[in-house]
Amino acid sequence: MLLYKTRTGWQLETDGVRKQLPAGGIPLHEDLHAYLQQTAADAPVAAADGELLPPIDLQEVWAAGVTYFRSRTARMAESETAGGGSFYDRVYNAERPELFFKAPPYRVVGPGAAVRIRRDSKWNVPEPELALWVSPEGKIAGYSIGNDMSSRDIEGENPLYLPQAKSYDGSCALGPAILVTPEPLPASTEIRMSIRRAGASVFSDTTTLAAMKRRPTELVEYLFRETSFPNGCFLLTGTGIIPPDTFTLHAGDVIEIAIDGIGVLLNTVASE
Question: How many whole angstroms separate alpha carbon 68 and alpha carbon 80?
Fold first, then answer.
């Protein structure tokens, strides 16, 4: 089942039929799947609503880094001039994962909205990622698509600049929906990204969850060790798709990220 957030509230889609859920947020119950099924049974069919909002209420968005070998290689390369190349190799091979705060809900944009690149950065890329929807108890309740916009030149200059490279207005997109399922996604699940500029494709690539070094449950366990989330949270799980070093986003570029079973997250890079 898929959860969508619209101007009229939350909607649940099952078997191709979308129902309008009661007003208010989505309570992350112990058995959310069963709760939503029961709630939707008596809910009215949702009216047509063309605008989708980011599927988030009060949750913080966190992110994990260097969880794919491709990400390790790219971040080592971008940090060579600062002498920090081996830094990311150690992160990739360490027992403890890299985890960082990405965005509060008011900085998150939804499908069809504009993501941003920093005005003080010259090398910017999108990072397509599987997003975990996690309950206050640290249980994975569902999955969405995330875009972790990143300023590679700022991060490469000094690893301590990571918050500036990763967390700013319009740097995070979520959507188009949350796939609510009690089952983990199969390792064969594909993540696909394409970027178009003036109607022409300038980059596309595909990876699978099998390329991840760390399990989603492992990332959640580390995040919840000493940090509480009374409203639950989203956790981006890292990227295995990175454009070449010669590529940077331009205003007007269209970024399309797809994960089977969840849908397509499409965003345009804002024009300043």
Answer: 19
Q: Hey, how many other C-beta atoms are within 10 angstroms of the C-beta on 37?
A: 14
Rounded Cα gap, residues 191 and 228, in angstroms: 29
The model carries a pTM of 0.91
3 state DSSP class of 246: coil
Cα separations in angstroms, 52 against 7, 126, 169, 176:
7, 21, 19, 7
The count of domains in the chain is 2
Lowest mean pLDDT: which of 47-56, 131-140, 235-244? 47-56
The counts of H helices and E strands in the chain are 6, 18
| Same-domain status, 81 and 155 | yes
What was the pLDDT predicted at 87?
66
Domain membership of residue 208 as a residue range: 54-269
